[in-house]
Amino acid sequence: MENFNYHRPATTTAAAAMLKKAKDGKYMGGGHTLLPTMKQGLAAPTDIIDLTAIKGFSGIKVSKTMVTIKAGTTHMEVASSKEVAKAIPALAEMAGKIGGVHVRHKGTIGGSVANSDPAADYPSACLGLGATIETNKRKIDADKFFTGMFETALKAGEIITAVHFPIPKKAAHFKFPNPASRYALTGVFLSQNGKGQVRVAVTGAAPKAFRATDLEAALSKDFSAKAIAGVKVSAKGLLSDMHATSAYRAHLISVLAGRAVASIA
Amino acid sequence: MTGTGVGASVRRKEDLRFITGKGNYTDDITLKDQAYGYFLRSPHAHAKIKSINTAKAGKMPGVLGIFTGDDVAKDKLGGLICGWTIHSKDGSGMKAGPHPVLALDKVRFVGDQVALVVAETKDQAKAAAAAVQVTYTVLPHVVDVAKAMKSKVQIHDVASDNRVYNWSLGDEAATAAAFKSAAHVTSMDIVNNRLIPNAMEPRAAIGAYDAGTESYTLYTTSQNPHVARLVISAFHGLAPEHKLRVIAPDVGGGFGSKIFIYGEEVACVWAAKFVGRPIKWTGERSESFLSDAHGRDHVTKAELAVDSSGKITGLRVNTKAAMGAYLSTFASAVPTYLYATLLSGQYNIPNIYAEVDAIYTNTAPVDAYRGAGRPEATYVVERLVETAARELKMDPAEFRRQNFVTQFPHQTPVIMCYDTGDYGAALDKALELSDYKNFARRKAASLKNGKLRGVGFSAYIEACGIAPSAAVGSLGAGVGLWESAEVRVNAVGTIEVLTGSHSHGQGHETTFAQLVSEKLGVDINSVSIVHGDTDKVQMGMGTYGSRSGAVGMHANSKALDKIEAKAKRVAAAVMESSVDDIEFKNGTFTVKGTDKKMAFGEVALASYVGHKFNSNEIEIGLKETSFHDPANFVFPAGVHICEVEVDQDTGLTKIAAYTAVDDFGNLINPMIVEGQVQGGVAQGIGQALLEGAIYDEDSGQLLTGSFMDYNMPRAANMPHIENFKLGFTCTPCPTNPMGIKGCGEAGAIGAPPAVINAITDAIGVRDIAMPATPLTVWSAMQPMQKAAE
Amino acid sequence: MPTLSVKVNGKAVKGDVEGRTLLVEFIRENLGMTGTHVGCDTSQCGACVVHVNGKAIKSCTTLALACEGAEVTTVEGLAKGTELHPMQAAFKEHHGLQCGFCTPGMIMAAIDIVQRHGKKPDEEIVRRELSGNICRCTGYHNIVKAVQAGAANM
After folding, report:
1. Which chain A residue has its CA at the smallest distance from B708's CA?
2. For chain B, which end, N or C, has fewer CB atoms within 10 Å of the first or last residue's CB respectively?
């Protein structure tokens, strides 16, 4: 890969200043998407600003209503957090299914959310739980955050500092991994909050993570696997590649959503 | 015998360096003043090279030299060769197009090497390669072997229909008659999916030139360094053999892909003279995907004729075999003499006819990959046999049994003469180990969990220990397929065995030493096995085709016999007795009827001291050599039974249980043999369920160009320990003194049909494509589900 | 060129590196320790796994400079003199390796499994947690056995 200047700021302010100064700078979390992309020559930033050494950038806080995960927290830390497992077990389980062990030791929630990879798992958790993404500038609703394939509502220089997940009544995550890459071929993150509101978020199936509103509507009336058995998920707009056709992905959404509901209904 | 002799599961001697990080792979080696090479590769599947401009790249930092096909041509460096000549039915020779070390005029697949850039660092070489300006005129391409013969694309001038040869084996008329009179014919279109070997160590090479001695050294990831030296010397014409040393140090897996002589290693060692410094090239995995020789890629029309009593009377195949863009080193032999000769399987089939078209496509070359031809043959036979049994409503095990060869030797209609075997015994043992009689119970239990369970059989046979030289020569091989061994006994009684076999995971440093320990009664730790260096081992043919046991160890055994004979003469002289009275047992020489004795080490010392015998009658020293050429192939065979569970909702298929019963004759080291079977089966399961190389028809690009898209078997894809059962039967091979066959490829040969037979049984379809991915299996189930609705 | 200071296998080392230098390049090229391997370029195969501050990571996807001040352990740092680490011994005893190329990464990954799951990781856990380590030779059968046996002896 092309050479670059490496920076390891101790504060978000310093990080933002470094990015501003750089000709073509990029923030980096665990680096497990960025570095392979750079190795392939698909990206060649002049400056890498490593956010993982920022003081107070990682950690998990659980209140009665909210799980807050700071941006630099690794997938392994989330997966093995007893507090998260107690508050939102599906979230800890989901983190435990990202990549492999070595990836989970390094990959961070902030990096994953900021990247908006269409096959990443965290975007589905954010949408499926109605999370709020906090940056060094503002708070953004998950529903407005993921704008496209590798595209988000983040503005230039903006740094995710934490993700706030409201604790639902129940939630479940089911993932059908791409057999080769282990990314989600299709993944479903589903929750029901205390008011009975249902969220069904899908990843891996479309250019970006999205909410399956038909399934949500059906489940809001009747939170059971039976309720969605008859709902036909449309293949329109879904991805099609050698691993899965759009019809297969649509089918997997139904299957995974059904399993998710059955596991917690 | 001691705990380290033949038949003992001795822990491997070579392991210590690997588990402590002290292995010595090619990329681990750094030569003084070493520079780095990087290959610029074709981005197009088929294109004319209009021009290559290296001016800008040549001025980039650190660049030491840029070499193109023109430079190679100017220096008259020969092209890559295919070492096995196949003749078409009509008698014409195979149509081998030119295969330059670096592309000349034309590129023929994505990844074809166009230029070698040498620089102080790898990053500099890579950056300069990006600055080399190549102008291409893009040509239409064809990547599908089924379409290439009728395509308007012409890949090589010599082959107007892209056909390398149209070859046949067997009696066409007699086979046609058998089909005419058959009570039942099973006919199938069978595709054997293209695979990418992916040994975990990517290919690498370091070429060096010593101007003082005018000699070259090449470190390379090779399964057969002597063959590499021979080819680079005799065909590329780089240097005579005594001025070219080839070293294959620790090699991280091969599976066939490191048999071949590739352009990269030839270019590195050639260019080292011009650069005046050693050049190291280490392939990135992406390059391995593009440029390592791939495996399989057959499309076959296959038919089986059965009479009214359920006896197989004929088998007929028509196969289109992809060769890729160039003929790789042994490519032509794979779909012919390593394929059609095994089409009789374990069965007594009186009439067989095979016709094979070898075809160029705009893809990476295809050559031997674990099993090489035999997996393709076994897949055809075992899919046909299983399907025929189902169509005839016969138990697939019993249908096989009633057609098994039972008398040996057995001459098949396709060249091979099976020396020995007991196929029924393996079937019985496999049925028992797999608890076949209770399959229905397991199937019902799976169904309760929403899973469809199926069972599939595979009764494979392979020919390995590839040899004898005269036989392969008569079939077109450019080389003989013997093996050499040199046993050097040191004065203190320690022993070095120099072998032409090459170990890249097989554990020769242990098994070959076990043979020495067994035969000479010495401690295994006083034996070293030396291999992989043409300056140490004089000549050898290397390791592939499961030949190192049957051929390499046989040479070792013969040399050890000579050592024993010579040592007896020395012992007789020292102990002042007749050589006829000397007995050798457990490492001790004794004189019959006396209490005189000498340990092996004492005799070794005496043979070098030379005080106690007449050196005009007995030469000083204890060193013997053997070049062994076996009498026949060896014929491992076995029965594999696979049970799968298919998730009805997603099509995800799990190997629920796997049983392999193999007849490898006698086992030298059962632990290592079991490891070979486990690894081979994993590759076979990989082919059946996970792996498939896909080239995009429109762009000609390799879509499965990394581990992100090419699905390698992982730990969770394999059956659990308690569900993976191995068993052995034994009919010792009569053509080598150890009675051993070969075990390296059996798993990869036996597994694919067992898995696919199980899946088709589970979901109730006649056929399904490999790899049977979740998408493929789910799609296959859709018509049925629709019909059920 | 920036300077990197790390502790590798208990020994403090320093070296000049570029921004783009990967940890695996630093270990193999700057330090000349070649037990850590590179088997792919997409962060999938796990041949390069080492421990950084006690955790198994892919050194091919870690910048050397990101390890400033860290403690790095490679396969070369496991044995105490001639006494093998229990996981190394288990790989030999259970024939958990053939060509040996994936082995260093496998052993480092295995030790990480034991650190998180204790001495008795069940087979399902071992298989699942080896998803980031590819072996082409063994079919994993004996690797799984070795990991479980090594775990019990750690």
Report:
1. A181
2. C
